[in-house]
What does this fold into?
Amino acid sequence: MDKIKISTAQFEAKNADKAYNLSVIEKLAKKASEEGSDVIAFHECSITGYTFARHLNKEQMLDLAEFVPNGESTQKLIEIASKYNIVILAGLFEKDENDNLYKPYICVDKNGSIAKHRKIHPFINPYLTPGNGYTIFEINGWKCGILICYDNNIIENVRATTLLGANIIFMPHVTMCTPSSRPGAGFVDTKLWQNRETDPTSLRLEFDGMKGRAWLMKWLPARAYDNGIYAIFSNPIGMDDDQLKNGCSMIIDPFGDILAECRSFEDSFVTATITPEKLSNAGGNRYIKARRPDLYRDIIGGDHDSEQKVIWLSPDEKE
It folds into this structure.
């Protein structure tokens, strides 16, 4: 594998405004390509918007969702990738011919669709069907995987994707700045966003504290370190429906070190050069080789009733 330049982006998407969101994706993809990037990754549901979908009924979801890869948005994404010769990853809502609904993240290049991962642990809308598998594909000779937001909270998903061969895992999110049972969690006051030009300090303190980045740093670098992979984290900045999100899109190497991170309040991206040497030198590579699955195969693979709770999502919003 040769080194590869990857960008991760963040922007403030508009609810259900695919044309606008795709225009921002094109703007940032163009700039990243001009600066030498081979790949650019956007956040979960970056094409459609995300949090507002908790209020939609099935008919409204079907109107919003598209076929993938034959739908208009995927084809537009391929057009952008071809125009600027860059691989693009972005998310939306999907429907199939039987009116099943999914939440995928897709990868395209100038030649067409490369990969699609359906979120294994969706929750934003009750009509979404969970994905039922892992996704491995190649970009410029690199083995890649995708895990969407909550998928990454279950550590077995990251390890399984790694064991299937992934050296890079794209981790698109819409996360942070929501209430939780953990200490310090909560919404960030939207007035701070409105006043970001006159008082950026107060906003940054909230974004970087336990409501946001400080929580992220408890676990995200560990996913990369423990598995010896590159983690490409993407997250929106600004308002996502009525919730404020803090960005922090970043690229983490197999040592768990941050190579690049978005620190702007604007629509932006950062870029890092990914090199293969770190994969073999990282501790995670040695630890995977030292595993003893004979000891825990039956424990990890034992019967289990999956229960997924999202504390900030009230029962009324799930209906």
In short: The CA atoms of residues 51 and 241 lie 6 Å apart.
